[in-house]
Design goal:
This protein has a single domain, classed as Rossmann fold (3-Layer(aba) Sandwich). β1, α1 and β2 form a beta-alpha-beta unit. The model has no long low-confidence stretch (mean pLDDT 95). The protein is globular. It has a seven-stranded mixed sheet with strand order 2-1-3-4-5-6-7, with helices on both faces. The two termini are 30 Å apart. The protein has ten helices and seven strands. It is of the alpha/beta class and 240 residues long. Helix content is 47%, strand content 15%. The longest helix is centred in the middle third of the chain and has 27 residues.
């Protein structure tokens, strides 16, 4: 059996290491390419960049957090190229006024040389489920990914998220096989948001990962890998 082309999009200030357990676990069924969503300060431009550079004519697409937001713009731009869509711990709505107001102070701190402090104090505390908050391996990896990408990427990605469009209509009109997954303890993108996304998609399945927060690919990697395998290999989603 030939392997399924699969594009993975990491979250904000993350790289391909976010999906390392899944890349390994799915190597028998998926030909994986990690998209780059670091080069622009616009979600539309990031989506177009991934579509232009993806090495497959058609492919399954999975994105976590900001990666999911870019994925939702990709299905608006080129739905025929993406027969399968997985949205992990993400948000289909435009940025809230409260969150928008927090972006510029964060960017200012990062410009002033405090990227590490912003990652540690303002972002990492919200990422993990209670059972994983002392998992130093995951915490160190999250910090390492963010520091490797650096302050310029932080600013571009912050602006892209701040100005992103609402994706409600893109989800409602998506005809492909969709899968929505969320950590039970995700404080950034709660379960209720994922229930709403699943309800919008004409063909979808929703999975909640117990004992996971915003980073289920690292917190509960085996559970997520098994769920993605089922999404990739099943015949069709549940029609609503």
């Amino acid at each position: 059996m030939s392997r399924i082309p699969l594009v993975l999009l990491p979250g904000m200030m993350c790289d391909g290491r976010l999906f390392a357990p899944q890349v390994a676990a799915l190597s028998d069924v998926a030909d994986v390419w990690i998209g780059d969503i670091t080069r622009s300060d616009s979600v539309d431009a990031l989506a177009a960049d991934v579509l232009a550079n993806a090495p497959f004519a058609t492919f399954a697409l999975a994105g976590l957090s900001m990666g999911g937001i870019v994925a939702m713009r990709m299905i608006a731009q080129a739905p025929a190229r993406i027969p399968r869509l997985a949205l992990l711990d993400t948000n289909h709505l435009a940025e809230s006024a409260e969150r928008r107001a927090q972006r510029e102070p964060q960017i200012a701190r990062v410009r002033a040389g405090h990227l590490r402090q912003v990652l540690v104090e303002e972002m990492k505390p919200h990422y993990l489920a209670p059972v994983h908050r002392a998992d130093q391996g995951v915490l160190d990896l999250v910090l390492s990914m963010g520091l490797a990408l650096g302050p310029d990427v932080f600013e571009r990605q912050s602006l892209a998220l701040r100005n992103r469009p609402d994706a409600t209509e893109s989800l409602r009109g998506y005809p492909g096989h969709a899968f929505v997954l969320c950590g039970r303890f995700d404080a950034l993108c709660p379960v209720s948001r994922h229930e709403a996304m699943a309800a919008l998609l004409p063909q979808s399945h929703l999975a909640i990962v117990e004992n996971a927060g915003h980073m289920p690919t690292l917190e509960e990697p085996d559970t997520v890998s098994s769920a993605l395998r089922a999404w990739l290999t099943s015949e069709q989603g549940n029609r609503r």
